[in-house]
Amino acid sequence: MTAEMDASKLMKQQVGKAAADRVQSSSIVGLGTGSTTAYAIQFLGDRLKSGELKDIIGVPTSFQAEVLAREYGIPLTTLDVIDRIDIAIDGADEVDPQLNLIKGGGAAHTREKVVDTLAAEFIVVVDSSKLVDKLGSTFKVPVEVIPMAYAPVMRAIEKLGGKPELRMGVKKAGPVVTDQGNMVIDVKFDSIDNPAELEKTLNNIPGVLENGLFVNTTNLVLVGEIKDGQPSVREIVKG
Ligand SMILES: O=C[C@H](O)[C@H](O)[C@H](O)COP(=O)(O)O
Asked: What are the transmembrane regions (predicted)?
């Protein structure tokens, strides 16, 4: 493992723990997707096991989150049997100064947006590499589409000035298939000046299920960073 990988792992672990520590007993918890949230799920499981935390129920945002929650002993529920989510913990691929996000690097943004926006408190967990001045500067915007519509959706996105690319599988021939059985188009925009408007415009293309722009969805981002050689966590609160 390189020193860079070590640092990234340490930052993710630390921030995952900090988020898990904020969960209180008897909470219904939205369980996000990705490598950072995976640590939060693991630490929630540890707190349950030690008896420090009691009676939490998780709402998974993906097959990955569901499998991890089962592995770490977190009981699960679904949205048809609960009427609230107290807190959701989820990662992000980019965070801008207004705390708007790009998500969906793991193709889970559709279910994540449902769960995260239902939560009374949505905590984002990232390492410091995810902070950007402007959304779209390092990451493409993921757009989930129903399979029969992928070609016209790509043409419509080109007309909006985006450069669309069908996301292809790794160790799987052909496209990535989401937990809903759909496809993902990653879109490079030269400049995202109005994320709120772009989020709506993309979702308005027939055949699009959901895109990875999360605008005004969170007031709290926890950032894992390395300071003086030690992992630490910084809070960014929306003012
Ligand atoms: O679809 C995946 C999610 O939006 C993830 O939360 C996001 O990609 C961040 O993942 P990671 O913590 O692995 O960087």
From this structure: none
Reported as a single tens digit per residue, the pLDDT across 173-195 is: 999 999 999 999 999 999 999 99
CB 45 within 8 A of CB 17: no
Q: Report CA(132)–ligand 1 centroid distance (Å).
A: 15
Check whether 186 is labelled as a binding-site residue.
no
Round to whole Å and give the CA distance between 138 and 103: 12
State which of 42, 93, 123, 217 you would mutate to test the pocket of ligand 1, scoring each by most atoms of that ligand within 8 A of its C-beta.
93
State ipTM.
0.99
User: Strands, DSSP E only, in 91-193?
Assistant: 94-95, 101-102, 119-127, 141-145, 163-166, 183-188
- Would you say 207 is a known binding-site residue? no
The rounded distance, in Å, linking the Cα atoms of 79 and 97 is 31
- Alpha helices by DSSP H, 92-176: 109-118, 150-159
Structural domains of the chain in order of their starting residue, each with its CATH number: 3-130+216-237 (3.40.50.1360), 141-210 (3.30.70.260)
Based on the number of CB atoms within 10 Å of its own CB, is 177 exposed (0-12), middle (13-18) or buried (19 or more)?
Answer: middle
Distance 84 CA to ligand 1 centre (A): 23
